[in-house]
């Protein structure tokens, strides 16, 4: 199920347009920045479940082959996301960023379930990657209580409705805010003004990375393609590599002139791939050539 519907659910969204990614010049420098970042994530998750569950009733879930408790559990997850929005909004008060108009483009209940797993894993890695930036111990506790619930969501979705291995390894991947926002911006259609003044993100275009196989095995040869903002192919520009993020580490593979690359050994489960210009250290906005593409290494 993962291999086919994952591409339909996520790549269809990612391929709609090149949205925006944060500049390295201004991102998450204060506790308020981190909380606004968290609220941005929670607004998206809240809207995702609210919209999908209004569209898909118990019968739709049953007709798709899901057990009777699956939709109820998603309703519970949706209530968690709404509670997270309220808590963070209450803390931020008049500074709280407002929800945007979102476009998720799931095609049916199966693609909704798969994309839910993607979003929950992304949210989990976002909190893991940002919590160390918080200085106020009360805010650290707040973020930790949300993070632990996000991790439960990210575990339940693959293990119950998808019937697959929920574990990505001994450690979750801490993603930088720049990478996370590059992905989340693909779901944002329109935001109320002044959106950019309440968020700590300066944005610039990042191309979408697409993988020819989103469920490869280590050692497989696949095609990783991205295009520049002007539409020209970037796959043949040197140097270029694919960075594979997972289990709190990064593995690199060379990106050939036709986009060919070999999936590295040493990673399994849900990982995030992106094109970079350097294989030294972890990816950053200084060497990122594309946004993230989720994959599931077998």
Automatic annotation (TrEMBL):
UniProt keywords, alphabetically: Signal
Record's protein name: Ferritin-like domain-containing protein
Signal peptide coordinates: 1-20
RNA-binding as UniProt keyword: no
InterPro entries for this protein: Ferritin-like_SF, Rds1
Pfam families: Ferritin_2
Highest taxon of source: Eukaryota
């Amino acid at each position: 199920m993962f291999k086919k519907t994952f591409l339909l659910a996520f790549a269809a969204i990612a391929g709609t347009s090149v949205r925006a990614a944060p500049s390295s010049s201004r991102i998450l420098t204060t506790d308020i920045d981190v909380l606004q970042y968290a609220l941005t994530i929670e607004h998206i998750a809240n809207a995702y479940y609210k919209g999908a569950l209004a569209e898909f009733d118990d019968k739709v879930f049953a007709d798709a082959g899901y057990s009777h408790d699956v939709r109820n559990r998603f309703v519970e997850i949706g209530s968690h996301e709404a509670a997270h929005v309220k808590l963070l909004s209450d803390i931020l008060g008049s500074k709280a960023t407002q929800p945007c108009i979102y476009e998720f483009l799931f095609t049916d209940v199966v693609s909704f379930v798969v994309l839910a797993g993607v979003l929950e894993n992304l949210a989990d890695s976002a909190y893991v990657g940002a919590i160390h930036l918080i200085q106020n111990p009360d805010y650290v506790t707040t973020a930790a209580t949300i993070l632990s619930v996000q991790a439960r969501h990210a575990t339940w979705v693959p293990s119950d409705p998808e019937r697959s291995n929920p574990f990505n390894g001994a450690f979750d991947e801490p993603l930088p805010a720049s990478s996370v926002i590059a992905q989340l911006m693909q779901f944002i259609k329109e935001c109320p003004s002044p959106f950019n003044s309440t968020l700590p993100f300066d944005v610039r275009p990042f191309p979408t990375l697409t993988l020819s196989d989103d469920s490869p095995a280590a050692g497989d040869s696949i095609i990783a393609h991205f295009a520049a903002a002007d539409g020209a192919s970037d796959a043949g520009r040197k140097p270029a590599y694919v960075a594979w993020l997972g289990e709190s580490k990064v593995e690199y593979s060379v990106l050939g002139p036709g986009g060919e690359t070999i999936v590295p050994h040493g990673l399994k489960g849900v990982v995030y791939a992106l094109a970079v210009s350097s294989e030294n250290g972890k990816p950053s906005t200084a060497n990122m050539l594309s946004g993230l593409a989720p994959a599931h290494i077998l």
